[in-house]
Amino acid sequence: MAILEEPIKGVKLVKNYVNGEWVESKGEIYDVVNPANCEVIAKVPVSTAEEFDDAVQAAKEAYWDWRSTPPVSRARYLFRLKELLEENFEELSRIQTQEHGKTIDESRGETRRGIENVEVACGIPTLMMGYNLEDIATGIDCKLIRQPLGVFGIIGPYNFPFMIPLWSAPYAVATGNCVVVKPSSEVPLSQMRLAELVEEAGFPPGVWNVVNGGKAVVSSMLDHPDIAGLTFVGSTPVAKIIYEGCGKTQKRVIAQGGAKNFLVVMPDCNVQPTIASLMTSFFGNTGQRCLAGANLVIVGEDEEFYKDFVQKVVDTASKIVLGYGLDEAVQVGPLRDKGKKDNVISYIESGIQEGAKLLLDGRMVKIRGNYPDTCFLGPTIFENVSPSMKIGNEEIFGPVMSIMRAKNLNQAIEMCNASTFGNGHAIFTTSGKSAREFRYKVTSGNVGVNIGIVAPMAFFPFSGMKDSFYGVLHTQGQEAVRFFTESKVLIERWF
Ligand code: NAD
Fold this sequence. Notes:
It contains 16 helices and 25 strands. Helix 3 crosses helix 4.
């Protein structure tokens, strides 16, 4: 069994990247453990408020030179970064697998999606243009220009360690701001490697900083008078803290939260490709995606269709190969850590207690290769789930599918819309009428038609509604450019 070579060898000490220098933190140090083989691969610090302030001061110092660098020149740094990311594509992907547990294919997809944001931000001379109109009144002209604001904080979650900070950072620096990135301390290595490539691309010191840590760094970010705004991606309870905190200190904010996605299957769906999509949606990345399927709603009263479809889903899911993500034959890796596995198991137990029927039990794991089962959990499927059960309405963030039934499409849409979340609901159908009805009425920021993971490309905003998103503008593409700039309006008359 060939396992791809691990890029992280031994135990790496994670440093902060501040003002173009690699700085050792004085904060407490924690282990980063590869969840597949349980080996310690890094030590990550919990940086102090003072260390965060050093980064903000460096960013502030760099700001005026950087914001007055022509956009076309700023873009050239991003073009260089893009080339370096391509050259190091495979290494970046394998680091994600090592620190997070996802399969190498998932990591390669994540790397590609991250790079695409750098590519889009390379178009900043065009993206940042304002607009104008002569003669808004006789002899008076008006124009709108976009200007950067200063220093932004960027906070990432653990489930996409490389890509998610890139939903924001390239646009922030392309528009002339400086950034302090705080990666999830559970998976700090991808952002450390990215910062090494930022350094190699020659960005001026202070433009792109990385400070590792947890709650203390986030609190400092919220309170810091020199932080103009921040982007956050993570769970809903923390997104609320961020949104409220930014309100108190008048910072602009994008706060992307958790999810509970409904995938609705119509009896007229194309069965084979639908099942293939459901497998990657519910079980890919071990269910640790904000766009993962959580509830599968099967529509209609045709018992034969229902039974046959569910049987096919269970049969296909039971054949999924679990193991170390650097083994290319593996389809699903471990959960990020044992605590997360225990949390998902507690949901499985609650599903059983609340009367749902367990059709496939992921607790009985079979792992390819000789790895401890500490963090592994296989695909798990329940039927007879109702939206009022814990497993039917809370975010589990693991490989658990809850099957529900709806009499008709309207009832299915009502079930989706009763959820407090609204991130990535989808419908599987061959009927254009049903698809239109669904996308028209469903309260979900990203909506899929025959797509299981409704992930917008870099040139579209990553949306979200209700408790999945707090804010107005979104990360990625043109909306990110708007978020990271102030609109200034000039009105001119010459006597
Ligand atoms: P999390 O909320 O625990 O952590 C996110 C970030 O906040 C991390 O950097 C963490 O260090 C920091 N943090 C954690 N607790 C904090 C606190 N009390 N105060 C201040 N900062 C704190 O999220 P996670 O477990 O890393 O990521 C998984 C969650 O992210 C899931 O809920 C998932 O749905 C969500 N997510 C959402 C999207 C989206 O686009 N909406 C994308 C990816 C992940």
